[in-house]
Design goal:
This protein is α+β, with helices and mostly antiparallel strands. It has 12 helices and 16 strands. The protein is elongated, with a radius of gyration of 26 Å.
Length: 428
């Protein structure tokens, strides 16, 4: 048995597991039939074959869970068990490049101390420097997210109130390369699962078409694209979101085609920053999301870093906004146009209509109602805070005596001590 040098792999494991560095590895020579190595894994990142036909369906998160178990075993100096499980993992997922790299390291560690995650020869490291750096970064991001877990019962601060129509919600934390899937239960949001993701090549905060950045903000799933209509590049399917939203347009942002999508057959996952702006998941993880969420009603929060809070703590934050929304509701219900108009910002815009145009529309709607009150049903509102404070509100507007009505979405912005509407439109 030989003490391994401090390596990126084992250091990461030690941090995650709270253990000392692995003290030893099995130094027996690998079997003659085994040709896998760190060099081969690094060289073949984009050339690995897809999963063989006839194997059992892969569950979401299963491959990552197995990889983390291997990390833990290595960090506990249980190298032989780690190697056995790594071999099974790469056999089941030959396109999982990070697993191939870890497997190669475990093989190499049987005969010599490791220097770093992906301990390849200097020549190979130089030739594949970019790929090796991406795999190392992927490993660290996976460990970071799994080490820094949100406290039980907490939720992202953006989810103030969701209606029963919002059966699920998604939140993306770019700083952890992680997507969190929630179920909206009778007792509030429940974290169902979370997954490693990739974002734009140039990072986050998309501003213009072609900048290869992932947008930040509050969005909604707009459709579910049939994978048969897509190139293999997009993997198991795609869920487009409504970028640019009303706030993005107000800020002059451009671009389109931001999706949640999968990976091509040769790649199980992609580097943390590798897309043209989309959020990319491993295909089994995306398939779970596609099976779960509904189009149009599923909010998608994409943040640089999520702030996790206790649900009860955000109620106080929403009190002033609820008062403004109630004022709007009451004014519209009784036809108080003066109060109603005062709640719209001077730069209000809705598909080309100015505030004056909108005031005329509100007056026309009030005349047609003929005194019938307005009910708001299935109200949800989410908060986005950066340089400004914004609320994204969705509700059904139903006149007394009616069973259905239009579904509206409003964008409110805090201006000083007051909340004002800068966009409103019918979405269904």
């Amino acid at each position: 048995m030989q003490r391994a040098s401090a390596t990126l792999l084992v250091t990461a494991l030690s941090v995650m597991c709270g253990s000392a560095l692995a003290q030893s590895v099995d130094k027996r020579k690998p079997p003659a039939t085994t040709a896998s190595s760190s060099s081969a894994a690094a060289d073949k990142r984009s050339a690995a074959p897809s999963r063989a036909a006839g194997r059992p369906a892969v569950k979401d998160g299963e491959a990552e869970a197995r990889l983390i178990e291997i990390y833990k075993l290595a960090g506990q100096a249980r190298g032989r068990e780690a190697l056995t499980k790594a071999e099974r993992l790469v056999n089941d997922h030959p396109n999982f490049q990070l697993a191939q790299l870890v497997y190669g390291d475990l093989l190499a560690a049987r005969s010599r101390p490791l220097r770093a995650l992906g301990d390849v020869s200097d020549g190979t490291a130089k030739a594949g420097a970019s790929t090796l750096a991406e795999l190392r970064q992927e490993s660290l991001m996976r460990l970071k997210a799994l080490r820094e877990r949100p406290a039980p019962g907490t939720i992202p601060s953006q989810f103030l109130t969701l209606s029963p129509r919002n059966k699920h919600a998604i939140a993306v934390d770019a700083s952890r390369a992680r997507l969190y899937l929630f179920e909206n239960t009778a007792t509030g949001l429940k974290l169902v699962s979370d997954y490693y993701i990739s974002v734009g090549k140039s990072g986050i905060e998309k501003s213009v078409e072609g900048d290869s950045r992932t947008p930040l903000g509050i969005y909604f799933v707009t459709s579910n694209l049939d994978p048969k209509s897509l190139k293999d590049f997009y993997g198991s399917g795609a869920l487009p979101i409504n970028y640019p939203n009303a706030l993005d347009l107000k800020r002059g942002k451009t671009g389109s085609g931001i999706w949640l999508h999968g990976t091509p057959p040769a790649q199980f996952s992609r580097a943390p920053q590798s897309s043209d702006g989309c959020v990319v998941l491993a295909n089994p993880d995306l398939e779970r999301i596609i099976r779960t969420v509904e189009v149009r009603t599923t909010p998608v929060v994409i943040a640089q870093s999520l702030k996790w809070v206790a649900p009860h703590s955000i109620k106080a934050d929403s009190k002033s906004f609820e008062e403004a929304l109630n004022s709007w509701h009451q004014a519209k219900s009784v036809g108080d146009l003066a109060t109603l108009t005062s709640l719209y910002s001077s730069d209000f815009s809705s598909y080309g209509k100015t505030r004056d145009d909108w005031t005329a529309q509100l007056r026309s709607e009030a005349d047609k109602r003929r005194g019938r009150s307005v009910q708001l049903k299935d109200v949800s509102y989410l908060r986005w805070t950066d340089s400004t404070d914004t609320m994204v509100v969705t509700f059904g507007e139903v006149l007394s005596g009616s069973r259905t009505g239009p579904v509206r979405r409003q964008y409110w912005m805090r201006q000083g001590k007051h909340w004002k509407i800068f966009f409103e439109g019918v979405i269904g």
